[in-house]
Design a protein that fits this description.
alpha/beta; Rossmann fold; 234 residues; two-stranded antiparallel ribbon; 15% strand
């Protein structure tokens, strides 16, 4: 199976490097992506919006023959959901890593402080404690050293969806910051945070307790969780 890995904010393709070994060992083909504006700290980010990132992943899907599994971390979850909407017939499964599908009209996070066209990685005290579980001082130093400013448009633009066949594409949520029991409670209560997620007809919920960046804090465990999701779709 071809597995396309979409990083969250401030990260490039290399952020998946410790997650992919179990997938490769199992014979799957991995395609970690670096999205437009994330090529380097000096890359131009003016005019890059959410649709540009979705289109970049759609292009990766179109370059592959046969079905794909999409994996999106954090803000990458909104991106892969836009791709599911654009190519529902091509996606065997969408895997949301501490993230979920962003519905029509939603934004990823328009409260992140911007500096011109850039959204830099905020100071650690700007995050909730739940985000930072297991992200020790060494990992924080590593993350900040490799962090690339996010294009402001990706964070602030509204999601636009067109094809309700997206709800027929199987999905897995790998829940880190919030347990799956809480996600289930929210869906049962009709909470708007999970309204789009609740409409997916074939949904698996998997717990991987850690902070918001499991690719750094529990990469081996994340790799195995992604592998299990991929194998369900193979």
């Amino acid at each position: 199976m071809d597995v396309i890995l979409v990083p969250g904010f401030w990260l490039d393709a290399s952020s998946w490097s410790e997650v992919t070994p179990p997938l490769v060992a199992a014979g799957h083909r991995v395609h970690p992506l670096t999205l437009p504006g994330l090529e380097s700290p000096d890359a131009p980010r003016s005019g890059i919006g959410l649709r540009d990132h979705i289109d970049a992943v759609v292009s990766a899907v179109d370059a592959i023959e046969g079905p794909v599994v999409l994996v999106g971390h954090s803000g990458g979850g909104a991106i892969i959901h836009g791709v599911v909407d654009a190519r529902p017939e091509r996606v065997a499964r969408a895997v949301y890593v501490d993230s979920g599908p962003l519905g029509e009209g939603g934004v990823i996070n328009d409260e992140l402080p911007a500096d011109g066209d850039d959204v830099p990685l905020p100071p650690w005290d700007g995050f909730d404690e739940a985000d930072l579980v297991d992200l020790n001082d060494e990992l924080r130093t590593m993350f900040r050293a490799r962090a690339i400013p996010q294009p402001k448009g990706v964070a602030y633009d509204r999601q636009h969806l067109h094809d309700e066949r997206r709800y027929d594409v199987p999905a897995t949520v790998i829940a880190c910051e919030f347990p799956t029991s809480l996600l289930t409670e929210w869906m049962d209560a009709g909470h708007p945070y999970v309204e789009e997620l609740a409409r997916i007809r074939d949904l698996d919920l998997v717990d991987l307790p850690t902070g918001h960046w499991p690719q750094f804090t529990k990469p081996a465990e994340l790799g195995e969780a992604v592998l299990a999701a991929v194998n369900r779709s193979a």
